[in-house]
Every structure is written in structure tokens, then in C-alpha cells.
Amino acid sequence: MRKSISVGIGQVLAVLLLLTGLGLTLWNEYRTIRVSLMLNNAEKNIVEVDPSGIPDPACEGKLIHLTGVTQSSEPIRDMETGVDVDALLLKRDVEYFQLAEYHDSETDIITYYEDWVDRPLSSQDYIASKRDANFVYVRLADTKDTCSTVTLGGYHLPAGLIGWVRDYTTGMHITIPEESMSELRAQARSASKDNVDVPVHVIGNIIYVGPNPSEPQIGDVRIKYSMVPHGTVSVLGKAQGDEIVQYGSGREYHILSIMEGDHSASAILNEERENNRGGGFLVLFVGLILMALGLVGSLDLIKALFKK
Length: 308
Description:
Blueprint: H1 9-43, E1 47-48, E2 63-72, E3 76-77, E4 84-85, E5 87-104, E6 109-117, E7 143-146, E8 150-152, E9 155-157, H2 159-162, H3 178-191, E10 200-203, E11 206-209, E12 221-229, E13 232-240, E14 243-245, E15 257-260, H4 265-297, H5 299-306
Parallel strand pairs: 1-2
Antiparallel strand pairs: 2-8, 2-13, 3-4, 5-6, 5-7, 5-12, 8-9, 10-11, 11-12, 13-14, 13-15
Helix pairs in contact: 1-4
């Protein structure tokens, strides 16, 4: 007599989770080993390049390592404020002084407080006495701009590579062209409740739109700038004409790395190995979790299959 087994949707999903987790774990081990072998092989074929010279045709298509000081032919300009700097990256962070609302879900009490926030707040749903409190003198988005023409010796560096640099500094003194200053004042006057002139202050790396930076009021705007200055970097990638691009093609692991400071090719590859291991551990963890969930959910099905 044939034994019949009733399989529920939950049990089917559990089996799928188990198989997915197993497949992900096996694939991750294969990928981690393959990338490790590729990096070891790449280390044997690195060509050291003098950044002071022009690109050597003998290096075409090869994995090269060079260290030097970055340069650019033009500054980065913030088109909305006129701020420009000779740097690799320029970041703008904007804060607004607003009346914020806090609703305590346990006591159902609503309180209001003034603070710097990262976006303008609507006060239309506040209590009647606070409803029209919020406004802002100017509205600007946070931005991050990369220098479009960065060179290292005779080679051009791609913008995507420069974007990986993270050593920002706020130790800068910005200036604003008069036309940009006039535009900010015009926007602030138009947004003010009484259509009055609003001062625009430039303090170090900050543009402050509001009467008094020492005593912020609702509506004030604080525009902060930070930058990654030109300096010594070490790069590892493939030489292609006068550019450095990704090394590797097809399904291979790509190498295109930049580190701030003077670093050997081995140091850069070691960081790539750490990234490979870190990514591998994360995928392995996810795979094991899926396998555990699938195994627990499959216990009823396993018992039914072996039940006499």
C-alpha cells in the first residue's frame, strides 16, 4: 500500500530556503577561493611605473602600480553658490534651523523644540500656535562633486576611482563671487516673512544665511563645505593609453584601487584581500542563516518521509 504525504506550502518554502542557502554557501566558497587565486597571480605581474614620465607603450594592457601627487587642470565649482576649490572632491551639506515636533507614543504627549535638521520641515500639521512657524531662506540639496580632470603623472584617473577617496577636511576658507552672494540674498529676502534683507555670512568653510550665526533662528540655513585636497595617492589598475582603468575582464574579479598616501602594490592587494574575505564572511553568514531556517522548517517533512 502506497504511503501518502501531505506537503504544505511552508514546508516547500523551507526546502527552497535550505537549497538556496546551500547553493549560496558553495558559490561563496568558490568565489572567495577564485578571487584569492586571481589576486595572488596578479601580484606576480605588477609593473611599477614612474609617475613623473609619460605613459610607456610597453605597459599597455598591464597591471600597473604608481604613487604620486594628483593634479587637475581646473577647480571644482559649485554652480549654485559659486564656491570653487582646487581639490579632488567637494562636498556640500545643508542644515536648516527648524521647529521640530516630537510625539511620545507612550504618553501621547507632543512637544516642540528648535534644532538644526537636514531638510526643511512642514509645520502645517502642528498645533494652531505653531502651524506657520517653519520656513527657510534658501533651499539647497546636499551634493558631492568630483574633479573631472585628475591626473597622476602622465595618466588620467577615472572619476569613479576618485570617488572612493574618503579623507575629507573642513579646514578650508571659501569665497563667494558677488553675483552668487547677491542671488542668495535675493532668495533669502523673497522667502523672509516680512520681505526684508537677510545677511549672508561666510565663515571659514560655512555659508550662513540668517541674521546672526551665534543666535540661530527658525529659517536660518547653514551650508557646510568639506573637500578632499590634492595629495599623494597610490593607484593600482590597468594601463590603457593615458588612462588607468579596471584590470580584468569577463567574469574575472576587477582590480582598480586607490589609497591615500604612499603605499606599495602589496599593501593595496592586501586591502583587496581583506575586502574579499569580509564580503565572503557576510555572504557565508547569510547562506548559513538560510540553511538553518530551511532545516528547521523542513523537520516536519523529513519526519513524514521517514515515518513508518
